[in-house]
Design goal:
Layout (H helix, E strand, L loop, with lengths): L1 H13 L5 H30 L8 E7 L2 E5 L7 E7 L2 E5 L9 E9 L2 E5 L5 E9 L2 E4 L16 E9 L2 E5 L2
């Protein structure tokens, strides 16, 4: 943000022939596109590394101008990707179990939303980029166990929410 401010001040002081104000929104859209391409390539590499696993262990959901509702009961959930563009999805993982190690779930919500239902004992780490949107963790915290489940297993939620959001719940 400081760099953008400095460039705008320099453009005003030295009268550059190019207006940085006219280039702002195209630059934002270009950066978002590059981030989407990079995230998709990372996800494809993760899938190539674990080809021996079943397809039912992954989420691969795309909702464009529509919606979907999926329930998983797998004993070896590995992550996946969720894409919502002007649509929404509900992913119920309340009966699923995480695989050992770290599982990655990549979300992309553009003018749409996603609802994740996860067990209360899952360890989650949210690493998303939110632009006029957000990810909210509304899980019930289990005070008696205090996440004493398998702490080596965790679900890492990465991705982008642009004018959309993701809601994480537990029942």
């Amino acid at each position: 943000m400081a760099t953008i401010g400095i460039l705008l001040l320099l453009a005003k002081i030295y009268a550059f022939p190019v207006s940085f104000q006219k280039l702002f929104w195209p630059a934002v859209i270009l950066i978002i596109g590059i981030l989407i391409i990079i995230n998709n390539r990372k996800q494809m590499q993760i899938r190539k590394d674990s080809q021996a696993n079943s397809k039912d262990d992954y989420v691969d959901d795309v909702a464009i101008f529509g919606g979907s509702e999926i329930r998983f009961t797998t004993e070896n959930f590995l992550g996946g990707r969720i894409t919502n563009i002007f649509g929404g999805s509900t992913i119920d993982l309340s009966e699923a179990r995480l695989s050992s190690g770290s599982s990655n779930l990549n979300i992309l919500c553009i003018f749409g939303g996603s609802k994740l239902i996860v067990p209360t004992d899952w360890k989650l780490r949210v690493e998303t980029v939110s632009i006029f949107g957000g990810v909210s963790d509304k899980r019930k915290q289990n005070v008696s166990s205090n996440n004493t489940g398998n702490n080596s297993n965790e679900l890492v939620i990465t991705g982008i929410t642009l004018f959309g959001g993701c809601e994480i719940k537990s029942f």
